[in-house]
UniProtKB/TrEMBL annotation:
InterPro entries: Carb-bd_dom_fam9 (IPR010502)
GO BP annotations, alphabetical order: carbohydrate catabolic process
Start and end residues of each Carbohydrate-binding domain: 86-173
Entries under Pfam families matching the protein: CBM9_1
Gene Ontology terms, MF aspect: carbohydrate binding; hydrolase activity, hydrolyzing O-glycosyl compounds
Protein name: Carbohydrate-binding domain-containing protein
Length: 428
């Protein structure tokens, strides 16, 4: 397991025999800015805790994903709230007093030319055992063909949930459901881009991961019948209970979730173009690609980028306090964001050169996010001899009164963030 270790100060090393680690630290702290030109002074000032000059900014809060407060179902007053019944109808009082998320947008973000023409939104609650999800999907043509559980449901219009309990981007869970309540649930050890693979009963019938065996429930509701073009339907709703224990499997997440802690989550809706058949049903239009509408933008047609998923913050429910929907930004966000800009740049560099860069400055042309290179504070970069893998240690810019966060990120996108007391850390 990757761990963090405090480094001795530079003065504790023999002046006549600097170690490779010291050299790495000097390179990371000094050479990272050699190619930034006249703006270099601003970058160094920003990392030292001073406000950067107007030439650029190290504030990446505008890229922070969506956030949502999830309230516990059990009240601490005498009459506890009734349990949520998984029947597809979102009519319990627990749902009625819970706010909706923002409506979904195109997976590529709001700047993409095409945006959803049907509304999709979600509510969430939790108790000590389950995360409850209620979804509303506006739709005029409700249909589904997949009937076998744990088949590939997104070949139909569907609703999907993705959960990364500890924010590492590894060992996350996915759930999909279509309009006739055919479901598919799976566990991915890491994103597909990093060589990840599916674990489910679809690929291993006897031993595959399956939340259904541990209490997972789902139901769908609509005012009419699916697969009938004669019906005048307007929406369908989904109600889901996902077992927390299985969502957190093989992660560092604490159960039950501690109040005010974060998990990463996103929701997706797949929408296909269909035509009416002579028999009064629906058929997908050949040659048309699906639309992908999501809660928190992915900025690519790829749901398997967990670093872009939204945040839920678990909160206790006290009846007399009501529901406060404001959720703060993740204090780890900046170092997480910059760590993934380094990850993207390293992989872009490898596509061109066949190996990962050992010198951080060589990555500058491969950074896509404005100012990310200038704002990085890379403490250590380790690359294998053959250049096939890397591990980097980054810290947030230390500012007065602001805790310091250190992040370790690997070439397979695994990330671990740790709050530290300001000492320089190393990868061990």
């Amino acid at each position: 397991m990757t761990t963090l270790r405090r480094l001795p100060t530079l003065s504790s090393y023999s002046a006549g025999a600097p170690t490779l680690l010291v050299q790495l630290l000097l390179v990371a702290s000094c050479l990272i800015f050699v190619a930034v030109g006249a703006g270099g002074g601003s970058a160094i000032a920003a990392l030292a805790g001073e406000a950067p000059v107007s030439s650029f900014s190290c504030d990446f809060s505008s890229f922070h994903p969506q956030r949502y407060a999830v309230y516990h179902l059990q009240s601490q007053i005498k009459d506890a709230e009734p349990a949520i019944t998984i029947d597809g109808v979102l009519n319990e009082s627990a749902w009625e007093k819970t706010r909706w998320t923002d409506e979904f947008v195109d997976i590529r973000g709001l700047r993409h030319w095409s945006q959803p023409w049907f509304a999709t939104k979600v509510k969430m609650r939790y108790d000590d055992n389950f995360l409850y999800v209620g979804a509303y999907l506006e739709e005029a043509e409700i249909w589904a063909n997949v009937t076998h559980r744990n088949d590939v449901v997104f070949h139909d219009n569907d609703f999907e949930v993705f959960v990364d309990a500890d924010g590492s981007t590894h060992n996350y869970k996915e759930f999909e459901v279509n309009a006739i309540n055919t479901t598919w649930n799976l566990w991915l050890n890491r994103p597909y881009r990093d060589g990840g693979h599916e674990n489910s009963t679809r690929v291993d019938l006897l031993h595959g991961f399956d939340m259904f065996r541990h209490g997972m429930k789902s139901a769908v509701y609509m005012k009419g019948n699916p697969n009938d073009a004669g019906e005048r339907l307007h929406f369908w709703t989904v109600e889901i209970a996902l077992p927390l224990r299985e969502l957190a499997l093989h992660s560092q997440a604490v159960l039950p979730p501690r109040p005010y802690t974060f998990w990463r989550i996103n929701f997706s809706r797949v929408e296909w173009t269909v035509a009416t058949t002579s028999s009064g049903g629906y058929v997908k239009v050949r040659g048309e690609v699906e639309e992908n509408w999501v809660w928190s933008p992915q900025y690519a047609v790829n749901m398997h980028m967990p670093e872009n998923w939204g945040y839920i913050q678990f909160r206790p429910h006290f009846e007399d306090e009501g529901f406060d929907s404001d959720v703060p930004m993740d204090p780890e966000w900046k170092v997480r964001y910059l760590s993934f800009q380094l990850y993207y740049a390293q992989h872009a560099f490898k596509v061109v050169n066949g190996y990962f860069a050992r010198d951080v400055t060589a990555l500058e042309p491969f950074f896509q996010a404005e100012n990310a290179f200038k704002c990085m504070n890379v403490q250590q970069l380790n690359v294998t001899n053959d250049g096939s893998s890397f591990e980097a240690l980054l810290t947030d810019a230390k500012r007065p009164g602001i805790p310091l966060y250190a992040a370790i990120i690997r070439d397979d996108s695994f990330i671990h963030v740790h709050k530290v007391d300001g000492d320089i850390m190393s990868v061990e």
